[in-house]
Amino acid sequence: MHTVNIHEAKTHLSRLIEKAAKGEPFIIAKAGKAMVKVVAIEAPSPRDARRVGFMAGQFTVPDDFDRMGDSEIDQLFHGNK
């Protein structure tokens, strides 16, 4: 694996990132001591991706959902009539 010092990494960052993205990871060192390893991020597989409707059938919404709490809300805004 290729090792570069911080100055070289700053100077050639775009080129180094392109190589890492293509599968050529590298190490950035400071004063000869390895500090970080730069590797490409792997895209999640399609089966791991979240999808809409993943909880379908696991709960139900009441028929009066859009009217729930009407009297309490009316009371808060308008008080006793």
UniProtKB/TrEMBL annotation:
Function: Antitoxin component of a type II toxin-antitoxin (TA) system.
Identification of the protein by name: Antitoxin
Family membership: Belongs to the phD/YefM antitoxin family.
InterPro entries from the UniProt entry: Antitoxin_Phd/YefM (IPR006442), phD-YefM_TA_antitoxins (IPR051416), YefM-like_sf (IPR036165)
